[in-house]
């Protein structure tokens, strides 16, 4: 089998299994694959010069299209650049297919130029690693769960381009069918028993878009006190106003202190709240039932868990959670006090998020790392719901965030990305993809507070913060994006298609807000 035949077989099998988009990082060793993608114009190809950002862009495309996406790299350290996205894809259940070109197998272990041990490099962070060459070209994606990345390593001999370029046929119907699978009857009964014998607080984390209605209908029927994170896309939904906690995460602690709830029902991804981490120690005796889209419970201690959100549409409970009017009244009163503080300190970091959330109403909002996520949850206006919210929260890292946002951006909405300054610096090459996107209304908001201020309240040591005095204006100009700098949110704004908005909080107002905010919970 020639290199071109082997490369054609790989691309054809990827297409047959449902791949419709390819992320390409071209080089010499993967030139057989590059030439096939270039000549077959019926395939959608995004070109990148840098593999790490490209892989995170691929995760964004998977989250947006709900199809597997293939990234194709050359050999050597280019392969290692995919590891961060493979880690995120594993914990977020995003099946990135990593196709890596390689030198012939007999070069392994010799230290020959551009030769590293590529097979096995992803360790735990792929479902399967396939090692192909002309003598072993069998390739099949059947019987996979499609909940982890997949590694396809393809070895090419010299000369690399050794034959005609094959034509790739796109089947009218993909052979890959995503089967939800039957729910174990035991798991269904366990959840019904849990709901009928406990008074849980419901915590809703990140959700696949297709699960929004299923989860919403369950919440409306069960009526338990519910804390929806912003990344669930359900925060502030009008149908939840009578039982959604809207004053902030601190109310969760009060709910358990006052004995209103005795357990936790987690729905969706692992929550980002501090309370969730407290379930390991401070609240280690609180029972937890977890319903998610993968097998990760998010806790080191044993908890009951189901890895299918479809369970929520099948479960039956003998009675809904008892309504707690007192809790609702107390929560709304505190929420109004928090809102008053946000309006009192409009130039604080929290006040800027509050004002900015009104600009984002009806758009697609990507929350880029821990601090923006937490500030969005505590400070954004509930009545200004985006239509879509997303984040990379599988491994909670700060790399590749803007690249993932660009992959996830939607052509029919305004697309907003909210990131911290260090997160933006981690992904400076991300805007390369802009000219290849169908999405046009793109806004990258960088909260420039002079470093990693999430650590300032945790450790009170400057060494954790990485202080700087960098502006992002030159970065925007480098990629031909428009730029604005805000120290307060203007009443009216003329937006262009591609804009970097650098918001600079007032330090004194931020500290004053925190001081008065914390005092609210001591009243």
UniProtKB/TrEMBL annotation:
Binds 1 thiamine pyrophosphate per subunit. Residues 5-120 form the Thiamine pyrophosphate enzyme N-terminal TPP-binding domain. InterPro entries: MenaQ_synth_MenD (IPR004433), THDP-binding (IPR029061), Thiamin_PyroP_enz_TPP-bd_dom (IPR012001). It comes from the Bacteria. Keywords: Magnesium, Manganese, Menaquinone biosynthesis, Metal-binding, Thiamine pyrophosphate, Transferase. Pfam families: TPP_enzyme_N (PF02776). It catalyses: isochorismate + 2-oxoglutarate + H(+) = 5-enolpyruvoyl-6-hydroxy-2-succinyl-cyclohex-3-ene-1-carboxylate + CO2. Its EC number is 2.2.1.9. The keyword Lyase does not apply. Pathway: Quinol/quinone metabolism; 1,4-dihydroxy-2-naphthoate biosynthesis; 1,4-dihydroxy-2-naphthoate from chorismate: step 2/7; Quinol/quinone metabolism; menaquinone biosynthesis. Gene3D superfamilies: 3.40.50.970. Its cofactor is Mg(2+); Mn(2+); thiamine diphosphate. GO terms for molecular function: 2-succinyl-5-enolpyruvyl-6-hydroxy-3-cyclohexene-1-carboxylic-acid synthase activity. The keyword Metal-binding applies. Catalyzes the thiamine diphosphate-dependent decarboxylation of 2-oxoglutarate and the subsequent addition of the resulting succinic semialdehyde-thiamine pyrophosphate anion to isochorismate to yield 2-succinyl-5-enolpyruvyl-6-hydroxy-3-cyclohexene-1-carboxylate (SEPHCHC). Belongs to the TPP enzyme family. MenD subfamily. PANTHER family: 2-SUCCINYL-5-ENOLPYRUVYL-6-HYDROXY-3-CYCLOHEXENE-1-CARBOXYLATE SYNTHASE (PTHR42916), PROTEIN PHYLLO, CHLOROPLASTIC (PTHR42916:SF1). Homodimer. This is 2-succinyl-5-enolpyruvyl-6-hydroxy-3-cyclohexene-1-carboxylate synthase. It comes from Bdellovibrio reynosensis.
């Amino acid at each position: 089998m020639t290199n071109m035949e082997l490369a054609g077989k790989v691309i054809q099998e990827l297409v047959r299994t449902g791949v419709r988009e390819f992320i390409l990082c071209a080089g010499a060793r993967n030139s057989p694959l590059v030439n096939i993608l270039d000549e077959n114009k019926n395939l959608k190809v995004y070109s990148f010069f840098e593999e790490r950002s490209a892989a995170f862009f691929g995760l964004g495309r998977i989250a947006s299209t709900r199809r597997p996406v293939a990234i194709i790299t050359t050999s050597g350290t280019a392969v290692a650049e995919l590891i961060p996205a493979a880690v995120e894809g594993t914990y977020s259940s995003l099946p990135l297919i990593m196709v890596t070109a390689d030198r012939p197998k007999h070069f392994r272990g010799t230290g020959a130029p551009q030769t590293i041990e590529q097979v096995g490099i992803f360790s735990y962070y792929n479902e399967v690693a396939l090692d192909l060459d002309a003598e072993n070209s069998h390739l099949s994606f059947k019987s996979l769960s499609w909940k982890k990345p997949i590694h396809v390593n393809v070895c090419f001999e010299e000369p690399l381009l050794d034959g005609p370029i094959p034509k790739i046929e796109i089947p009218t119907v993909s052979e890959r069918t995503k089967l939800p699978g039957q729910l174990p009857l035991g798991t269904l009964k366990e959840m019904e028993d849990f709901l009928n014998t406990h008074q849980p607080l419901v915590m809703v984390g990140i959700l696949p878009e297709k699960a929004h209605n299923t989860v919403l209908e369950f919440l409306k029927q069960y009526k338990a006190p519910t804390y929806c994170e912003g990344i669930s896309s359900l925060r502030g939904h009008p149908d939840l106003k009578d039982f959604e906690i809207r004053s902030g995460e601190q109310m969760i602690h009060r709910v358990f202190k006052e004995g209103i709830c005795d357990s936790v029902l987690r729905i969706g991804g692992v929550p980002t709240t501090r309370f969730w981490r407290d379930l390991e120690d401070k609240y280690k005796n609180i029972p937890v039932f977890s319903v998610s889209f993968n097998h990760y419970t998010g806790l080191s201690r044993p908890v009951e868990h189901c890895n299918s959100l479809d369970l929520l549409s099948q479960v039956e409970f003998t009675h809904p959670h008892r309504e707690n009017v007192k809790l609702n009244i107390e929560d709304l009163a505190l929420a109004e006090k928090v809102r008053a503080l946000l309006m009192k300190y409009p130039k604080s970091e929290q006040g800027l998020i509050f004002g900015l959330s009104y600009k984002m109403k009806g758009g697609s909002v990507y929350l880029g790392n821990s601090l923006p996520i937490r500030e969005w949850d505590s400070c954004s206006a509930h009545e200004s719901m985006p239509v879509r919210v997303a984040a990379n929260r599988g491994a909670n890292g700060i790399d590749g965030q803007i690249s993932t946002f660009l992959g996830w951006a939607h052509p029919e909405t305004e697309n907003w990305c909210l990131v911290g300054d260090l997160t933006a610096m981690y992904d400076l090459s991300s805007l390369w993809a802009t000219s290849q996107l169908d999405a046009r209304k793109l806004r990258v908001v960088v909260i420039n507070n002079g470093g990693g201020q999430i650590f300032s309240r945790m450790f009170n040591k400057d060494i954790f913060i990485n202080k700087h005095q960098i502006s992002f204006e030159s970065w925007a100009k480098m990629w031909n994006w428009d730029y604005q700098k805000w120290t307060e949110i203007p009443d009216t704004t003329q937006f262009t298609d591609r804009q970097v908005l650098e918001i600079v909080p007032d330090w004194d107002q931020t500290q004053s807000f925190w001081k008065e905010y914390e005092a609210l919970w001591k009243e």
